[in-house]
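Query structure, 451 C-alpha cells:
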C-alpha cells in the first residue's frame, strides 16, 4: 500500500516555489494537500473579516489548481495539533511536509507536532519559504538581533543571495482514496449579513494565477518609476503585492528574482526588506501585537478611550481629508496606501491620543494583507514604541501631508469627494491639530522620564 505524503499548506497558498510540495513530490508517493482552519489553539489570533474573505477565495483557487494536477486539498477545522494528526491517521500518511511559520504560538504548535508525528514513525520535514532569510541567521557582530533597519538589511544583503524559486509542478499525483474534507462554504469565511465585500470583489482577485499576473504587470509597467512615485497614493506606482505575500500566493524568492535584475529595483527590494525586518522582529519578540517593544512606553499616559472618537476615525469622519480618504479606502477595498497608513495611524495615536493597539485591531480586521508581523510592527513604528521607530515627537500633519503627497487632490477626490467638490460638505475637524499635538508631546514627557 502506498503511504501518501501530506503537504500542510498554511500561509503559502501556491504551487510554485513551494519547497514542502517539492519534497512531497520527490518522495515519490501520492500527495494530499491539507489546510487547517485553526481558531482554537492557544495564542492563535483569529483572522479579521477581510482576511477571511481573502482566505476563502485563495483556498478555492488552490483547491482548483491541485485538482487540475491530479490531487485534492483537504479542509479541516480545529486545533492544528490534533487535526493534523487525525488527518495523517485517516490518510494513512507516511510523511508530512510544511513550510515554516515564525510567530511564537505557531512555532510551538509546529514543534510539538513534529516530535509527536516522528514518535509515531511519520516522516516530517519543514522548509524555509516565506522569508528570504531565516531569522536566526541574521545577527549583529555580537550575535544579537538587529533593532535598526539599515544595518539589518545590509547584513541580509551580505548573505548569499536568496535561492532561486522552484518551478511549479505540472502534476501532483493523488491517492486513490482521500480522507474526509470539510466543505469550504461551511466555514462561513464570507460575510453574508450584511455582505460588505462588494468593494473587495471589485478590487481583488485572490489566488496564485492573479498574483503572478500582477507581479508581471508591476515589473513591466510600474517598477521603473517606483522610487519617484511610491509615496504618492494616487500614482498607482506600488506593487499591490502585499496580500499576495501575506497569503503566500507568491514567495518572496519569486518576487526577489523577478525584480533583482531590473535597474532601479533596490528601493523596491528594500521594502521587501522591511517585511523581513518585521518578521525577524516578531520572531524575537512574539508579543509584538500587544506589548510595547520599548518598555518605557508602558508609562505612556493614554487617556480613557473615547469610543465616539475611535468610531469617527474608523468611519473616515474626522474632518481631515487625507485621514478620511485613507480610512474609507481601507473600508472599501481592504487596502490602504503606505503613506496614508502612516498618516492615519499617526492621527489616531497622536492627535486623538488613542492607544496604537486599538488602531492595530481595526487594521487587522479590515486589511486583506493584515499580517501578524507587518501590521503590529508598523503600528509600533508609528507610535514610537517599536524597532527603529519614528520618534514619538514626529507627528504627521495630515494637511501638510496632503499638500505634499496629494497635490492634485486626486486621491482625496476619489475616496472623500466632499472635500474636493465645490458644493461638498465635509465633516467639521474633530480636533485642533496644533493643540492635540502639544498634548501628545506633553504626555510623551512621561515616557522620556523613565527612559
Ligand atoms: P510596495 O511598496 O509595492 O512594497 C512591496 C512589498 O514590500 C509589500 O507588498 C510588502 O510586502 C512589503 N512592505 C512594504 N512596506 C513595508 C513596511 N513598511 N513594512 C513591512 N513590509 C513592507 N504591510 C503588510 O503587508 N501587512 C500589514 O498588515 C501592514 N500593516 C501596516 C500598518 C501600518 C500602520 C503601516 C504604516 C504600514 C503597514 N504595512 C503593512 C506596510 C505597508 O503599508 C504595506 O506593505 C504596503 O502599503 C503594501 O502595498 P504594496 O504591496 O503596494 O507595497
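Result returned for the query:
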Amino acid at each position: 500500500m502506498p503511504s501518501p505524503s501530506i503537504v500542510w499548506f498554511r500561509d503559502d497558498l501556491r504551487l510554485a516555489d513551494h519547497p514542502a510540495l517539492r519534497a512531497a513530490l520527490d518522495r515519490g508517493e501520492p500527495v494530499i494537500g491539507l489546510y487547517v482552519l485553526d481558531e482554537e489553539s492557544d495564542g492563535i489570533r483569529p483572522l479579521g473579516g477581510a482576511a477571511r474573505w481573502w482566505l476563502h477565495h485563495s483556498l478555492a483557487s488552490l483547491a482548483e489548481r491541485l485538482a487540475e494536477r491530479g490531487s485534492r486539498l483537504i479542509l479541516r477545522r480545529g486545533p492544528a495539533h490534533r487535526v493534523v494528526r487525525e488527518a495523517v491517521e485517516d490518510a494513512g500518511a507516511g510523511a508530512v511536509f510544511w513550510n515554516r511559520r515564525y510567530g511564537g504560538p505557531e512555532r510551538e504548535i509546529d514543534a510539538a507536532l513534529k516530535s509527536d508525528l516522528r514518535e509515531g514513525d511519520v516522516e516530517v520535514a519543514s522548509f524555509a519559504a516565506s522569508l528570504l532569510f531565516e531569522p536566526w541567521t541574521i545577527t549583529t557582530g555580537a550575535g544579537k538581533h538587529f533593532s535598526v533597519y539599515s544595518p539589518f538589511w545590509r547584513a541580509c544583503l551580505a548573505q548569499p543571495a536568496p535561492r532561486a524559486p522552484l518551478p511549479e509542478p505540472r502534476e501532483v499525483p493523488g491517492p486513490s482514496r482521500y480522507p474526509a474534507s470539510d466543505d469550504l462554504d461551511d466555514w462561513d469565511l464570507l460575510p453574508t449579513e450584511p455582505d460588505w465585500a462588494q468593494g473587495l470583489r471589485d478590487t481583488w482577485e485572490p489566488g496564485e494565477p492573479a498574483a503572478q499576473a500582477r507581479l508581471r504587470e508591476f515589473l513591466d509597467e510600474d517598477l521603473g518609476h517606483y522610487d519617484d512615485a511610491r509615496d504618492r497614493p494616487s500614482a498607482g506606482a506600488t506593487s499591490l503585492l502585499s496580500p499576495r505575500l501575506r497569503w503566500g500566493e507568491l514567495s518572496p524568492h519569486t518576487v526577489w528574482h523577478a525584480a533583482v535584475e531590473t535597474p532601479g529595483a533596490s528601493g523596491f527590494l528594500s521594502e521587501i526588506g522591511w517585511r523581513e525586518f518585521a518578521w525577524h522582529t516578531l520572531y524575537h519578540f512574539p508579543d509584538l501585537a500587544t506589548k510595547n517593544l520599548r518598555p518605557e512606553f508602558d508609562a505612556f499616559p493614554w487617556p480613557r478611550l473615547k469610543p465616539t472618537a475611535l468610531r469617527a476615525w474608523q468611519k473616515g469622519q474626522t474632518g481631515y481629508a487625507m485621514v478620511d480618504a485613507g480610512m474609507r479606502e481601507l473600508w472599501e477595498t481592504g487596502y490602504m496606501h503606505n503613506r496614508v497608513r502612516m498618516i492615519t495611524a499617526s492621527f489616531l495615536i497622536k492627535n486623538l491620543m488613542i492607544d496604537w493597539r486599538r488602531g492595530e485591531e481595526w487594521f487587522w480586521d479590515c486589511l486583506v494583507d493584515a499580517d501578524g508581523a507587518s501590521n503590529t510592527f508598523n503600528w509600533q513604528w508609528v507610535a514610537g514604541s517599536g524597532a527603529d521607530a519614528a520618534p514619538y515627537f514626529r507627528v504627521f500633519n495630515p494637511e501638510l501631508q496632503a499638500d505634499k503627497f496629494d497635490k492634485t487632490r486626486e486621491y482625496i477626490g476619489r475616496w472623500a469627494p466632499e472635500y474636493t467638490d465645490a458644493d461638498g460638505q465635509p465633516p467639521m475637524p474633530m480636533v485642533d491639530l496644533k493643540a492635540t499635538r502639544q498634548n501628545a508631546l506633553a504626555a510623551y514627557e512621561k515616557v522620556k522620564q523613565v527612559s
